[in-house]
Amino acid sequence: MGTHGAGVSVLNRAANAPYSAHHLTLCLDRPGSVNITDVSFEHVEGGLQVEAFATRKAVWNTDGSADGPLSEINYDPSETRVATVCDDRAGKDEDGLPTQLALQLNKPTDATARGVNLVLRYESAGRTHTHRVDFELVLCRGDDKHPECALKGADAYRS
Q1: Among 31, 57, 99, 109, which has the highest number of CB atoms less than 10 A from its own CB?
Q2: Residue 141 pLDDT more than 80?
Q3: Would you say residue 151 lies in a domain?
Q4: Full residue range of the structural domain in which residue 149 is found
């Protein structure tokens, strides 16, 4: 049986035009904190690049994306800490807000670019760890009539 995680296909994206999105929330399995040190995609087509990333307390009633850098959606790239615990309150902190992860993405050509299986590298208690998130992102060359704009899912990359 196949599974498919979350995903976003962004239409009509040109080359060398940063796009920032914050569609993901993060939390920890126990009290503490971690610092994310790197974010990339396990599978990449069309040269999709994660240019920057940042975290913050969730801000609701905002669009999940913007043309331009992370600052366009009010993220500070120097903030990479996650300290919210996953619990029956769905990973919310003392103020009732989860931690959001934002990505600044780009592609080198006008062709469609895609990334599948987000890889987060983080430090906790002086050690480096890796966590994979079943997430797919497509920066599409045109509108939704182009078949390559459809999400493929992680199963398409399993052997």
Answers
A1: 99
A2: yes
A3: yes
A4: 6-157
* 1: in domain: no
Angstrom CA distances, 122 to 32, 45, 95, 128, stand at 13, 24, 24, 6
Number of domains present in the structure of the chain: 1
Residue type, 69: P
Write out 94-144 in H/E/C secondary structure.
CCCCCEEEEEEEECCCCCCEEEEEEEEEEEECCEEEEEEEEEEEEECCCCC
Radius of gyration of the chain (CA): 16
- 3-state DSSP call for residue 156? helix
Whole-number Å distance between alpha carbons of 104 and 85:
25
Assess if residue 12 is contained within a domain. Answer: yes
* CB 115 within 8 Å of CB 136: yes
Place of tokens 């060398």: 16
pLDDT tens-digit series, residues 69-82: 998 888 999 999 99
Tokens linked to 104: 């600044």
- Chain centroid to CA 112: 18
Q: What is the model's pTM?
A: 0.85
Query: Max Cα separation, the chain?
Result: 48
Per-residue pLDDT for 3 more than 50?
A: no
